[in-house]
Write a structure and sequence with these properties.
- By secondary structure, this protein is α+β, with helices and mostly antiparallel strands.
- It is built from ten helices and four strands.
- Strands 1-4-3-2 form a four-stranded antiparallel β-sheet, with helices on both faces.
- Helix 4 crosses helix 6 and helix 6 runs antiparallel to helix 8.
- The longest helix has 25 residues.
């Protein structure tokens, strides 16, 4: 009996050390959350800087509005970030040394979501010229998000994307936004009865943490995505028939320990 107890104790002790030593390695990112958050911020500023000529320059070369200047625009994004999801309780000090992808992913996807919302709210400033005329610049939330994640992936190697299931027979507007099987299943979860608003979904598989945060339709989205179904919106795409607070899709990220 004594030998059996010793064997059981040894087995439990071994499992304990395996859990302590191996589990964090599988669930840890190469760099901490502050690094990734800073890189996403820099990606946002890069995109805004690169597009100043399109969205914030008058014919004479002067700035249209300070609101669209990169640092001021990012300030508005961060203010929006602090109003939604994990942003409400976010503290950068908590990201220092944090390598748990389950804690990093929600902060990153929420920051990109805040950027999309701010870009949607800024459409009047973006599209209005000095003489009061309106010229659609096509610098919309989806475009802003795509450009930012492209920069972010180049900086960090982290895969991030915007994705959607579409609605009423209309799928994603661009093929690179199409969901893979895992993302499709996650988006379907968001649309199931009782799913908590703004709650994301993540899993850890073979050292990779996959996470998706839902994107909701806001009032400003309806010009392009509302009704009548099938009618072409301002950018030539057919409207899908969304209503305010419908789930448009999600922001997907894959953080790996490799």
């Amino acid at each position: 009996m004594y030998k059996i107890r010793n064997k059981i104790s040894f087995l439990l002790l071994t499992l304990f050390f395996l859990g302590v030593i191996l589990s964090p390695a599988l669930a840890a990112t190469p760099k901490d959350g502050k690094y990734y958050f800073d890189q996403l911020k820099e990606s946002i500023l890069d995109v805004l800087n690169e597009n100043q000529g399109l969205i914030n320059t008058n014919p004479d070369g002067s700035m249209k509005t300070k609101k669209l200047a990169p640092k001021d625009f990012y300030k508005r994004i961060y203010e929006q970030f602090k109003k939604i999801g994990v942003g409400k309780t976010f503290k950068m000090k908590d990201m220092k040394g944090e390598t748990d992808p389950a804690k990093i992913a929600p902060a990153l996807t929420t920051l990109l979501q805040a950027g999309r919302i701010t870009t949607a709210k800024a459409q009047k400033d973006i599209n209005t010229e000095a003489d009061g005329s309106v010229k659609l610049k096509k610098f919309i939330p989806a475009v802003f998000g795509r450009l930012v994640v492209e920069h972010f992936q180049k900086k960090t190697g982290v895969h991030m994307k915007q994705t959607t299931l579409g609605k009423n027979g209309f799928k994603e507007r661009n093929s690179y936004n199409g969901p893979n099987d895992w993302e499709k299943a996650a988006l379907e979860k968001f649309m199931s009865a009782g799913w908590e608003v703004n709650k994301g979904y993540g899993v850890l598989e073979e050292g990779e943490y996959r996470y998706v945060k839902p994107i909701y339709i806001k009032k400003g989205c309806l010009k392009c995505h509302g009704t009548p179904i099938g009618e072409k919106g301002p950018y030539g795409h057919p409207k899908e028939g969304y209503e305010t607070n419908d789930i448009r899709g999600g922001i997907s990220i894959a953080l790996t320990s490799k």
